[in-house]
Design a protein that fits this description.
- This protein is α/β, with parallel strands linked by helices.
- Among the domains are: 123 residues, 3-Layer(aba) Sandwich (Rossmann fold), CATH 3.40.50; 97 residues, Winged helix-like DNA-binding domain superfamily/Winged helix DNA-binding domain (Arc Repressor Mutant, subunit A), CATH 1.10.10.
- It contains 15 helices and 16 strands.
- The strands form four sheets. It has a five-stranded parallel β-sheet, sandwiched between helices. The protein has a four-stranded parallel β-sheet with strand order 4-3-5-6, sandwiched between helices.
- Strand 10 and strand 11 form a beta hairpin.
- The two termini are 35 Å apart.
C-alpha cells in the first residue's frame, strides 16, 4: 500500500519554522520521509515596539504620496500595534490618501481588512516587479513609505531616492535565524552528502539563513553543487526562488504560491527525475534526460560540460527564465568568468538541440522553449 503513494521512498528536508506541522503532514501522507530543520526562529515576529512606534510617528509627521506594502503578516502586525497605541485611525487616514502598491495577495488582504484599497499589485507577487512598475516614472518630490519585510529594503529605498523620492522605511519585524543551529547543520550535511531528494523553502530569509550556516560549516560549495545536480530546491514561489539566483541554484516553484501546490509539484517532479525527465519542446520534439544521458527524439545528444550545465539549469524549471548570472554560476570551474561564456554555452546548446529550443528573454536571461 505504501509503495503506491507518490512520494514513497523519497527523503525530503523541510526548512520552515511556521506551518511546519501542516507541511510535514502533507509530505508524510504522500509517503515521504521528512527531515525537519528550521532555518529561522520559531518566533517569526521579532518586533521592536519602540522602534516601530517611532517609525509610525515619522510616517504620520507629513502627508504620504505613495505606500508600498510588502507582506501580509507585516501589515497585520503594524495595524494591530497602531490599534494598541490608539493611533490606528490616524495611520489608516494617512495611508488612505496615498497611492497604494501591494506586492501580493496576502498584503492586499491585510490592507482590505482595514478598509484600504491597493491601486496596483503584480501578478508575479515579486517586489522587483513593483519597482519595475515605478521605473521610468518621475518620483521627484513624492513622499514614499515602504513597509519592510523581515529583511532590510535599504537598497530599494536608495533606488527610489535616485528617482527623486523622499523615502521612509518602516521596519515592522526582523527575521532571526534559528535559536538552535544544530538541526540546520545536520540538514546541510544531508544536502552536501546528497542524502536528500529535495528540500523545501517557504521564504527568502530561510534561503539566506541556510547559505549563511553552510558558509560557517565550510560546506557551502558542496551544498550548492548538490542542489545543482541531485537535490531539488523546491520553493513556494518566485520570491523565495529568487534568493537562490545569486548562488546559481536551479529551483522549482508552482504557479500558485501556496504550500499545497508546492507539495503537489514534488509529487510529479521527484518520480520523473528518478525515472528520467521527459519534456516536449516547441515543434513537438521530445527531450529525455536520464542521469547524464540526453536524448532528442530518441537520438543521443553529446554535450560538453558547459552546455550540459546550462541545460540542467533550464530543465529544472522548464519554461521559466533563468538569469545569466545564475547560469554563469553553474558553469564548470575553469570556464571564463563572464556572461560571454554563458552566451557561448547557450549557442552550443542550441546547435545540439535546435535554435528554437532555448529562448532569449531580453534583459532577463534564457528559458527552455517547452510546448504549450
Amino acid at each position: 500500500m505504501t509503495d503506491s503513494l507518490p512520494l514513497a521512498g523519497f527523503r525530503i528536508g523541510v526548512t520552515a519554522a511556521r506551518k511546519v506541522d501542516e507541511q510535514v503532514g502533507l509530505l508524510e501522507r504522500r509517503g515521504a520521509t521528512v527531515e525537519w530543520a528550521p532555518a529561522l526562529s520559531l518566533d517569526p515576529n521579532h518586533v521592536d515596539d519602540d522602534l516601530l512606534r517611532a517609525a509610525t510617528e515619522e510616517v504620520l509627521a507629513a502627508p504620504v504620496d505613495m505606500f508600498l506594502a510588502t507582506t501580509g503578516i507585516g501589515m497585520r502586525t503594524w495595524f494591530d500595534a497602531a490599534e494598541r497605541w490608539g493611533i490606528l485611525p490616524r495611520l489608516l487616514s494617512a495611508l488612505e490618501s496615498a497611492e497604494i502598491l501591494a506586492r501580493g495577495p496576502k498584503s492586499v488582504g491585510a490592507l482590505r481588512r482595514r478598509g484600504l484599497r491597493e491601486l496596483w499589485a503584480p501578478e508575479s507577487e515579486c517586489f522587483e516587479d513593483v519597482l519595475e512598475h515605478l521605473r521610468g516614472r518621475s518620483l521627484a518630490g513624492l513622499r514614499i513609505v515602504v513597509q519592510e519585510h523581515g529583511q532590510s529594503l535599504s537598497m530599494v529605498a536608495h533606488a527610489l531616492r535616485r528617482q527623486g523620492a523622499d523615502v521612509t522605511t518602516v521596519t515592522v519585524y526582523r527575521v532571526a535565524s534559528a535559536d538552535d543551529p544544530e538541526p540546520m547543520f545536520k540538514m546541510i550535511d544531508l544536502i552536501a552528502d546528497r542524502s536528500l531528494d529535495a528540500v523545501t523553502f517557504t521564504s527568502a530569509p530561510a534561503v539566506a539563513a541556510l547559505m549563511e550556516a553552510a558558509g560557517s560549516t565550510g560546506r557551502r560549495d558542496e551544498l550548492v553543487s548538490a542542489f545543482q545536480a541531485d537535490v531539488v530546491a523546491a520553493c513556494v514561489g518566485p520570491v523565495t526562488a529568487a534568493a537562490f539566483e545569486m548562488w546559481g541554484v536551479p529551483t522549482i516553484w508552482p504557479d500558485r504560491s501556496r504550500l499545497g501546490a508546492m507539495v503537489k509539484q514534488l509529487e510529479t517532479e521527484l518520480p520523473s527525475r528518478r525515472s528520467g525527465l521527459s519534456i516536449e519542446l516547441v515543434g513537438g520534439r521530445q527531450l529525455l534526460l536520464h542521469g547524464e544521458d540526453v536524448l532528442l527524439d530518441g537520438a543521443e545528444v553529446k554535450l560538453s560540460p558547459a552546455p550540459a550545465a546550462v541545460l540542467n539549469a533550464l530543465v529544472a524549471n522548464p519554461g521559466n527564465v533563468v538569469s545569466r548570472p545564475a547560469l554563469l554560476a553553474m558553469l564548470p570551474s575553469g570556464t571564463a568568468g563572464s556572461e560571454h561564456a554563458v552566451e557561448m554555452a547557450v549557442a552550443r546548446l542550441r546547435a545540439a538541440l535546435g535554435t528554437r529550443a532555448v529562448q532569449t528573454v531580453v534583459k532577463r536571461g534564457y528559458r527552455l522553449a517547452v510546448a504549450p
